[in-house]
Write a structure and sequence with these properties.
single chain, mainly alpha, 5 helices, globular
């Protein structure tokens, strides 16, 4: 397989485990991906998606951890992290929207 084919194959393994709800397997595939392609942005995106995945028992999503993962990627390779910038912006926008929704809900309860 060419390096590009190997990258796609490894990413698909991680995505399949993520969609099947197998976080341990997904984490293992992401770690293997990071070792095989240390300069690739995709493992950081997959790792952030893994920690942001809503859990049935979690009160809120762990976006701070995902922000940290993506921020580390940006610090390591800012010129090659376009998708990480967009993912980080999406996480921050989601957090801001949730905060606004929480404030509206509290204001409605007070009224």
């Amino acid at each position: 397989l060419t390096p590009r084919q190997r990258r796609v194959f490894m990413a698909n393994q991680a995505l399949l485990a993520w969609h099947m709800g197998k976080p341990a397997a997904c984490r293992e595939f992401v770690e293997q991906f990071e070792e095989a392609f240390p300069g690739s942005e995709l493992p950081a995106l997959l790792h952030a998606a893994l920690v942001c995945r809503p859990k049935p028992t979690a009160a809120e999503e762990p976006s701070a951890e995902a922000e940290g993962i993506l921020s580390e990627r940006l610090a390591a390779a800012p010129e090659d992290s376009d998708r990480a910038v967009l993912a980080l912006a999406q996480i921050q926008a989601r957090g801001a929207a949730a905060a606004r929704k929480g404030k509206r809900g509290a204001a409605a309860a007070d009224a």
